[in-house]
């Protein structure tokens, strides 16, 4: 039973959620409340899974409960690491080939203009080994390496958050 719950949590954790800005990496909602103060990948995955399973973030944002702020602002700097963390496997596959749905979504989250998408896709493909530098790379490492690659390209540097 416990192994099934962990497997379910990991699988559901790979689904991206629209989240309001929050002082943690999982957003607000029941999961954030239940796992408040815990750190590491396992509590984060369980918190995101709980939020996604019960669809409670919308309720929390609408009512100002569950640690959600109805007047909150979605911040790009928070969305990128959350998206990368939830989509690591798909992004690795897409970056390795220079195309794919998750890479398109990442470009959209970064605000990459249509005329620069080709450069973005090429940069991620040609620098795949730098972005995913090791087998146990973290989402934070991926984001930092991606920003570094983008900073080195005149067209893409404008999309790196300050």
Structure, explained:
It is built from ten helices and no strands. The protein is mainly alpha-helical and 162 residues long. Helix 1 crosses helix 3, helix 5 crosses helix 10 and helix 6 packs across helix 8. The N terminus is likely disordered.
First-last Cα distance = 45 Å
Spell out the helices and strands N to C.
HHHHHHHHHH
User: Stretches where pLDDT falls below 50 for ≥5 residues?
Assistant: 1-23
Shape: globular
DSSP strand tally? 0
What's the structural domain tally?
A: 2
The rounded Rg comes to: 16 Å
**Average pLDDT taken over every residue:** 79
What fraction of residues sit in β-strands? under 5%
* Count of helix runs: 10
Multimerization status: single chain
**In which range does the helix fraction lie?**
55-70%
The major pleated sheet works out as: none
Provide the structure class.
Answer: mainly alpha
């Amino acid at each position: 039973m416990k192994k099934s719950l962990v497997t379910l949590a990991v699988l559901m954790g790979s689904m991206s959620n629209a989240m309001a800005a929050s002082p943690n990496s999982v957003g607000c909602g029941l999961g954030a409340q239940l796992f408040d103060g815990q750190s590491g990948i396992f509590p984060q995955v369980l918190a995101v899974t709980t939020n996604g399973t019960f669809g409670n973030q919308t309720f929390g944002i609408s009512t100002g409960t569950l640690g959600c702020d109805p007047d909150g602002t979605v911040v790009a700097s928070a969305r990128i690491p959350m998206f990368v963390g939830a989509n690591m496997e798909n992004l690795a596959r897409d970056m390795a080939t220079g195309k794919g749905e998750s890479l398109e979504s990442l470009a959209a989250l970064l605000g990459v203009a249509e005329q620069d998408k080709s450069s973005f896709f090429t940069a991620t493909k040609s620098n795949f080994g730098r972005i995913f530098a090791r087998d146990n790379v973290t989402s934070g490492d991926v984001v930092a390496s991606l920003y570094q690659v983008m900073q080195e390209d005149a067209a893409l540097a404008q999309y790196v958050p300050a």
